[in-house]
From TrEMBL:
Pfam families: F420H2_quin_red. Belongs to the F420H(2)-dependent quinone reductase family. This is Nitroreductase. Gene3D superfamilies: Electron Transport, Fmn-binding Protein, Chain A. It comes from the Bacteria. The lineage of its organism: Bacteria, Bacillati, Actinomycetota, Actinomycetes, Micrococcales.
């Protein structure tokens, strides 16, 4: 196997999240160009690929996403867990990411929303998926909003 074909060697050949239900979401997403699966309440999903901060390997997961003025908006909630999700830690270290939104591949730079940007984006995401408000109540950490600005 050449290095280009090694899983995790590039954004085009990522290692998929191995949590069973997430892996199933990713497989269904890829098989239908994002037409399926649908998430609770019909929240739209995207595939996010980040580069590991320790391993350097490219990893993919499935997340709820909203579009805002050409940007992709994500929530690093991990269901209200006390720690940030690994994908968030990865993009903090390596902000160049790939988002698949249905059939569109978007290469972009990820960043955490500023305190000024966050309130409006948080409201938008809670309106899309109300459980986010409950997740914030469950944890002492401030749940970050991530903005992915597309690269030209």
């Amino acid at each position: 196997m050449t290095i280009e074909n090694t899983p995790g060697s590039s954004p085009e050949n990522p290692i998929d999240n191995d949590t069973e239900w997430v892996a199933a979401q990713i497989a269904e997403y890829l098989a239908t160009d994002g037409e399926k699966p649908s998430f609770k309440g019909g929240a739209p999903l995207v595939l996010l690929t980040t580069q590991g901060r320790k391993s350097g390997e490219w990893r993919r997961t499935c997340l709820i996403c909203a579009e805002d003025d050409g940007r992709q908006i994500l929530v690093a909630s991990l269901g209200g867990a006390p720690k940030h999700p690994v994908w968030y830690l990865n993009l903090e270290a390596n902000p160049e990411v790939v988002v698949q939104n249905k059939g569109e591949i978007i290469r972009g730079t990820a960043r955490t929303a500023t305190p000024r940007e966050k309130p409006a984006l948080w409201q938008k995401m809670v309106a899309l998926y109300p459980d986010y408000a409950d997740y914030q109540q469950k944890t002492d950490r401030e749940i970050p909003i991530v903005i992915v600005d597309p690269r030209p």
